[in-house]
Amino acid sequence: MKKGHLSKSPIFLCLTILACGKSNNGPSIPVSPKSTITVSANDSLLNYSVNLVYLQDVNTTHTTLISAQYPDTSTRKGSLGIRIIGDTTGRFSGDSLLVTYTDGKGNVFYNTKDNANFVQIDKFPKTYNGVVSGGFSFSVSGSAGTVRFSKGSIVAIYQK
């Protein structure tokens, strides 16, 4: 019986290919969390992609600011600022909620203290880049009229 070289064996070839495969155990690059605030505003759908959460003391009141904007490179204009009293999960309405909306034309709108207006915060990790999530529904009014925000969803990134 004639013996061939081991390197010509099909089994040896398969084992060599498997041993030379790419390893997935290298260093991983951290993925930045994605944020979005989406809401129906009257007859339009707004989708803000730059959404950050900040803890701020306003005078002696501890508040949370949820800031929603378009990227600087966007042709869309406008912003949404939601400020709640405190820094925890729960439902915020009435005097615990202040909303400022600026539309694409520069008109500014504010919410009323109506208890039908609310923001629900479901998740609020207080770690840098933690994802804050929840939902909202409210009306805002200004000199240009009233805008009704409904079925809003929040996925925003905690900063401090």
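(ticket continues) Second input and output from the same batch:
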Amino acid sequence: MKGMIVYKSWWGSCRKIAEAIGQGLSESGHEVQVVAIEDAGPPDPSLDFIVIGAATRWPGAWPKIKRYTKKVVKAGFAGKPFATFSTGGTVNDEKPLTQASEVLYELLDAGGLVALAPAFKAAIEGYKAPGKGEDRGILPESEVARALEFGHELGGKLSGL
């Protein structure tokens, strides 16, 4: 199957997650293009599936990626498979903030697309929220490995369709 991964990264961590998911999909036999939102162009309804992700912006997702997600819904993707992902500094907190992947998932699900998996959330370690310091945190290699496995999981589900 042919698809696209569109992402919005702030400091590069979300790009790494997008690339790992893309690698997993490719290794599973699917043709996938990984594209930053700034280079995505209009949604292409001839694609078989779409994966959308972003760095979490409190609370939720960046406006630009939300607008693109709404365009996907309007572009005729209803009934097609999708997945979402995000990076965030509060993923492992007792009460995590709403993650971008959850917001994007809800938009696509409400638009009639078919979820392949629950929203994927990669944890940034050592992040400090604005006003509490300027530490961007780090994306552990274990999260990149989980994203690769997520890509394999998506690929297997797509192959079964």
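Agent notes: The first strand starts at residue 2 and ends at 8. The mean pLDDT is 91. Closing as not reproducible unless the customer responds.
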